[in-house]
Amino acid sequence: MQDAFVQSRAWSYLHVVLVLFSFRFFPIWLSLLADITSASNIAFLIIDVQNCFLSGGSLAVNEGDDVIPIINDIRCKYETQFSLVVLSQDWHCSDHISFASQHPGSSPLQVIQLYYGQNKTLCQLEAACDVKYSVNQTLWPDHCVINTTSANFGGNLTRKTSDRVIRKGYNCKVDSYSAFFDNGGFEHTELHSLLQSSGIEVVFVAGLASDYCVYYTSVDAVNLGKFVKWIITYHKCNVNDYAYMAIYAFT
Ligand SMILES: [Zn+2]
Questions:
Q1: How many domains does one find in the chain?
Q2: DSSP state letters, 139-170
Q3: Residues with C-beta atoms within 5 A of ion ligand 1
Q4: Which residue in 175, 161, 157, 180 sits closest to 231, CA to CA?
């Protein structure tokens, strides 16, 4: 993830310090969080903690269930520090373009190229289309289908009536890792305007998975810039341990 961040546009104008804390040092990490929560107008973004990405799900993140008590602990301890809590929800059509099942002869994790025309509609056949955009698409098992238990939030995840939910990936023809934009950058969700209207200056990001939806949400948050001071996410660092990655992005 660090390498990917170095490659991102964000690196060019933000000073980013990566701090890794192992699971056994978690209380230290919490005390650090206490220091940084002196800032005002903080939003806590909880990304895609849904059954499809949890144990038993069709696209389960390895040991991803471990993020739930961490997120719950953060909410328990720092709830009053957050002006806004937002949960993102992957929300796909049953025939979503990202599903390997929709591409005969393909298999999950295979990467294909999708082509879009001038009006950002998917080209069914590249040769019969005036291609304006191309998007790499990793194919996934069917997951997080609209109105199924797969798309529900994890049952143990703390939720409150004041939480806001941002759905993404509901365009059947384009995938969406980030909670801000789809993968083609064609359309945006209401997240950015929600943060702006709420006067958010600081964003914490946690959830699943650190290499896809948390990562791309974080990069977009940094690139959107003015309200981002730092980001926190979750990362499995090796086969024996977990790490919690705190990313301080000073604008
Ligand atoms: Zn998805």
A1: 2
A2: -B-S-SBTTSGGGSBPTTS---TT-EEEEE--
A3: 90, 169
A4: 180
State which residues form the domain around 218: 2-93+146-250
Q: What is the pLDDT of residue 39?
A: 59
> How far apart are the CA of 23 and the centre of ligand 1, in A?
28
Question: Are residues 88 and 194 both part of a single domain?
Answer: yes
pLDDT digits (tens, 9 = 90+) for 115-143: 998 888 898 766 678 888 999 999 999 99
From ligand 1's centre to the CA of 75, what distance in Å?
25
Give the distance (Å) from ligand 1 centre to CA of residue 34: 33
Active site residue 213: yes
Residue 182 to residue 167: CA distance in whole angstroms: 11
Shared domain for 81 and 184, answered yes or no, is yes
Which CATH number belongs to the domain containing residue 228 in this structure?
3.40.50.850
> Per the residue annotation, which of 52, 123, 144, 213 is the catalytic one?
213
The DSSP output letter for 173 is T
Q: Ligand 1 center to residue 77 CA distance, Å?
A: 30
Interval 150-169: pLDDT, tens: 999 999 999 999 999 999 99
Spacing, Cα 92 to ligand 1 middle (Å):
7
